[in-house]
Amino acid sequence: MKALVKFGMNDGDVEVRDVPEPELLPGTVLVAARAVGVCGSDIHMWRNGQSWEVALPVILGHETAGVIAAVADDVTGWQVGDRVVCETAASICGTCALCRTGRYNLCPHRQGYGAIRDGAFGELLCAEPRVLHRIPENVTFEQAAMTEPFAVAYNALVERATVTPGDIVVIQGAGAIGALALQIARLRGAGTTIVLGTPVDEHRLAKLRELGADYTIDVTKEDPAELLKTLGDGFGADVVVDATGVSIALKQSLELVRPFGSIVKVGWGPQPLNFSLDPLVAKAATLYGSFSHTWTTWERVLSLFSTGALETEKVLGGVYELADWKRAFEDMESGRNIKSVMVMPG
Ligand SMILES: [Zn+2]
Ligand SMILES: [Zn+2]
């Protein structure tokens, strides 16, 4: 089958290759991928700028929507033809304290699709039933492929730092996670939403204003701290979401958060920090890390797609064939798209 493979540890070491189809192992199903989202993390791996472990060669892709193509004899409850999305942990140990308390997203033995285990930018994906969710009838594959990044945003703003109605919410980063965090913040009743970007985000920031951002700021031209002084009591943001993937963004988060406010960090950045965390203490602010998601989050997001409470169309910049993967990646990297989705052959 054709698949998009990361084969080396240099910038650009990604190509479409012919690879063997995955085997239908006991206890698993094969999912024929139909639509698969391109994640910021896929672009990091294309550029070899990832700060997480990868096992080479690996098929990229973890934002999977498809149809079950085969079911092992010992699997019940799932049938060929079922429309499904797949969570991102291809395997977990199932027995550690985190797995047994429902926090399997943090299992130290977690092997993620598209990094350690072969992902979904291919025709077939091997999955344990544990990761499957049914796609509601009125949700398309292209929409369903966005369940994962929406689940990331939901986890950050509902299950970690909680947005309260009326809150001032600052979102650092205008990429996919920033855009989806904006929608979740608005759904939670945020009073004022402010999205921060850089010149490369010009097009995305305009899209985010359409999606309801009250303010969008190019931080190279304007200081968001000045705006915050004019909002509410002037003490700053109740919640700051770091969706940038750059460590230094935390310095700005600490500046913008109000005393007793919260910062939730979603973006990864391997760069070391060289500034003081004293403002965190002085403001008695709370800093949350937010990683991945669990079963309930996926079900919630799918039901919000189904009712139309979350808008997927404005976020989806383009749908591309696998052969055209480079354009799908470049259109996200350059800021033309908030989200690219690829459709798989077969
Ligand atoms: Zn993702
Ligand atoms: Zn575990």
From TrEMBL:
Return the InterPro entries for the record.
Answer: ADH-like_C, ADH-like_N, ADH_Zn_CS, ER, GroES-like_sf, NAD(P)-bd_dom_sf, Zn_alcohol_dh
Identify which cofactors the protein needs according to its UniProt entry: Zn(2+)
Molecular function terms from GO: oxidoreductase activity; zinc ion binding
The organism's superkingdom is given as Bacteria
Q: Which SUPFAM superfamilies match?
A: GroES-like, NAD(P)-binding Rossmann-fold domains
Please state every residue range assigned to the domain named Enoyl reductase (ER): 12-342
Cell inner membrane listed as a keyword: no
Record keywords, A-Z: Metal-binding, Oxidoreductase, Zinc
Fetch the SMART domains from UniProt: PKS_ER (SM00829)
Key word Metal-binding present in the record?
yes
Q: Which family does it belong to?
A: Belongs to the zinc-containing alcohol dehydrogenase family.
Designated name of the protein: Zn-dependent alcohol dehydrogenase
Highest classification ranks of the organism: Bacteria, Bacillati, Actinomycetota, Actinomycetes, Micrococcales
